[in-house]
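Retry 2 of 3 after timeout on previous attempt. Resubmitting structure tokens to design endpoint.
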């Protein structure tokens, strides 16, 4: 709790509420999104399970904000963008169960994904700040997100 900046005077928060809301609406809830048709309580529970699964699966990275960007705005944006694929994998391989453990098993597969970054680097998703920091522009982030999604499809080939 206390990680979302709602008021300008809020300090030491991870992400601005309007940004988080937009990323969730763009990727998770709303018409045509994975949680369309679920009631608000179900949506809230599933989104919490999803973020808890990330925090547990990438525990060291989640805690160490100095060296890792998973809990920075760009990391949260990537997590939201990955929801559709992780959700679909849970539907297919976890019998539709959307609890923390199901999400964790599918999120764990991200550790095997190798991506080509716009910087020319080819690497596993380590969430290291020094690698992702140069990629904070909107265009760069979209390239990174598309690359991760392409290399982490919603199904095993």
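Retry 2 succeeded. Sequence:
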């Amino acid at each position: 709790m206390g990680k979302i900046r709602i008021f300008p005077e809020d300090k030491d928060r991870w992400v601005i509420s309007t940004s988080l809301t937009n990323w969730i609406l763009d990727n998770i809830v709303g018409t045509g999104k994975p949680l369309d048709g679920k009631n608000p309580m179900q949506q809230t529970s599933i989104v919490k399970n999803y973020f808890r699964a990330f925090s547990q699966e990438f525990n060291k990275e989640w805690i160490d904000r100095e060296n890792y960007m998973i809990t920075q705005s760009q990391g949260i944006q990537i997590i939201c963008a990955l929801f559709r694929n992780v959700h679909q994998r849970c539907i297919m391989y976890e019998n539709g169960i959307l609890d923390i453990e199901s999400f964790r098993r599918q999120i764990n597969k991200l550790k095997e994904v190798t991506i080509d970054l716009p910087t020319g680097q080819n690497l596993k998703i380590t969430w290291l700040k020094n690698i992702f920091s140069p990629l904070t522009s909107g265009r760069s982030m979209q390239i990174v997100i598309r690359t991760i999604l392409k290399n982490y499809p919603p199904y095993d080939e």
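Attempt log closed. The helical segments are 17-27, 40-57, 59-63, 73-93, 100-108, 129-132, 138-151.
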